[in-house]
Amino acid sequence: MSQYGMDGFVQLSKIISLYHPPDTNGHALASSPDNTPGLIIICSWFAAATKHVAKYTTGYRQVFPTASILLIQTSLLETLFGSDLSPACDFLDSYMKGDPDTTRPVLLHMFSNGGANTASWLATRLTKADGRLPFDTLVFDSCPGAKDIVAITRAMSFSLPNQYLLRPIGFYVIFAAGLVYKLFNDATGHEDPITRIRRDFNDTRVFSRYTPRLYLYSKKDILVKFQDVHDHAEDARAKGYATVHEEVFLKAPHCALVNEDEARYWNAVREHITGSICKA
User: Fold this and answer.
1) Which CATH class is domain 9-146+198-279?
2) φ and ψ at residue 165, rounded to 5 degrees
3) What is the 3-state secondary structure (H, E, C) of 144-211?
4) Among 34, 44, 62, 167, which residue's beta carbon has the most beta carbons within 10 A?
């Protein structure tokens, strides 16, 4: 990946890529502060353009220059049929079995329902593999939302080419498919992905109560309602999650909080992560 912010990434699969800082070989530099992550996992939002994802890989490389970055992207096929996360799981297994003196904490940062869905699958795979998760702190960015067919359809239709009539027609096709899917779930009792995501992340059998979490969201988000994100944070507190922070933006659109106030965004992320690691 040669685009700025994505340079240095090596493809592990079609949707998974990995960046190591120079001379680290996947582990921490000897001079790295103890209160910084060694690995940042980014689960991007649905059909995110590389140039937009690069804003966050660039930001993390500036804030935590000695951290490796594992990027997992999300497309329509992965959303519908699941992702092959084997390369990510294999790398995480190797990372966690590394030298404890050079293996620093792991951050999981997920964007929107698409990224949260990928992160949930990853957590499920890792839990089944060895019964534990390597995540030391979580960042929920513009997620999780609630079961809202219109909002989900709007988000998925953004991945369609913005050509005359194509996106409007695609919106109604996706909406119709989503409605049929909802009716099927209601009739069979099958759990929809959004409900599963919300449940999984507040399930103490999967995510420890002692794993700190930060919710970043905007009151102007039309794809994921801010109240739904806030309610999930409140539910986490009610279920005994010890450290739950919320950073609320006022004007930013979906998955673009950094555009409203870049300094505030990265300060919130930095303070949450370094504070979480210091408490660990």
Assistant:
1) alpha beta
2) 70, -20
3) CCCCCHHHHHHHHHCCCCCCCCHHHHHHHHHHHHHHHHHHHHHHHCCCCHHHHHHHHHCCCCCCCCCC
4) 44
Tell me, what's the pLDDT at 152? 62
Q: Are 192 and 113 in contact (CB under 8 A)?
A: no
Token pair 């804030």: residue: 63
Given a contact cutoff of 8 angstroms between Cβ atoms, the answer to whether 224 and 150 are in contact is no
Give the domain ranges of the chain.
9-146+198-279, 148-191
pLDDT tens digits along 222-261 = 889 999 999 999 999 999 999 999 999 999 999 999 999 9
Identity of residue 160: L
Which DSSP state fits 14?
Answer: S
Q: Which of 225, 207, 254, 267 is nearest to 44 (CA)?
A: 254
Determine the length of the chain.
280
Rounded to whole angstroms, the Cα distance separating 222 from 155 reads: 9
**Angle, helix 112-130 to helix 193-201, in steps of 10 degrees:** 60
Q: What is the pLDDT of residues 106-136, one digit of tens each?
A: 999 999 998 999 999 899 888 876 667 889 9
State phi, psi for 219 to the nearest 5 degrees: -75, -10
pLDDT at 46: 84
The answer to whether 56 touches 93, Cβ cutoff 8 Å, is no
In this prediction the pTM is 0.84
- Which strand ranges, in their side-by-side order, compose the sheet holding 68-74? 9-11, 16-19, 68-74, 39-46, 106-111, 135-141, 213-218, 244-249
pLDDT beneath 50: ranges in the chain: 1, 28-31
Residues in CB range of 214: below 8 A, 6 or more apart: 137, 138, 139, 140, 245, 246, 247, 268, 269, 272
